[in-house]
Amino acid sequence: MSGDRDALEEILGGKIERRGERELPGLSPVEGVEFHYYEDDGKNKAKKQFNALLDSAGLIEASSGGVVSDSCTIYLSDNRRFHALSYHGDIDGWREAVEAGANARGLLLARIEGDQLVVSDGRSIPLSECKIEFS
User: Fold this and answer.
1) pLDDT band at residue 13, thresholds of 50, 70 and 90?
2) Angstrom distance (rounded) from CA 100 to CA 54
3) What is the pTM of this model?
4) Rounded CA gap, 112 and 45, in Å?
5) Which of 2, 58, 72, 114 is such that its CA lies 20 to 30 A from the CA of 19?
6) Is position 10 within any domain?
7) What is the residue range of 98's domain?
């Protein structure tokens, strides 16, 4: 069975994660992919918020690639939540779109740097002080 998994991972070009073994998106760099976390608006489910974030971005000028949501949420000690997303292809174009959508909706963004969650309001929070949940 391990040989089959190894072969499939080679075909797919990456590791297949099992439940309970998931790594926090953005903890380890992935070539050609950038990770961000957007603040939960407290009103809607994550999928609806993800769509609203992109809808609020205005004209998206990314020329290639795409953006996807991830089933990972980081909870801060002040009860704020951040949902993961990643983008590939035109990294600058997608980053611009995500930032524009967050600005339009008044939401904070965050990213992982080492063992810290760095929030766009200037805070840096140790990941060890956060609750991390995969749904």
Assistant:
1) low
2) 9
3) 0.85
4) 23
5) 114
6) no
7) 18-134
What are the pLDDT digits (tens) for 103-128?
Answer: 999 999 999 999 999 999 999 999 99
Place of tokens 């926090």: 24
pLDDT band at 10 (very low <50, low <70, confident <90, very high): confident
Judge whether 8 lies within some domain: no
Task: Specify the higher pLDDT residue, 13 or 47.
Answer: 47
Tokens representing 131?
A: 């609750």
- The answer to whether the beta carbons of residues 62 and 89 sit under 8 Å apart is yes
**In whole angstroms, what is the distance from residue 33 CA to residue 43 CA?**
29
Residues 6+ apart with CB under 8 A from 69: 46, 47, 50, 83, 84, 85
Look at the chain and report how many structural domains it folds into: 1
